[in-house]
Amino acid sequence: MNKIFKPLFIFILTSFLLACGKQTNNEATSGGNEPAKKSRGLIGATCMNIANPFFKVIEENMRDEAAKHGYDLIYLGCEMDISKQQKQIQDFLAKGVVAVAVNPKDSKAIGTAVKECNDKNVPVFSFDVR
Question: CATH homologous superfamily for 2-19+41-126?
Answer without folding.
Answer: Response regulator (3.40.50.2300)
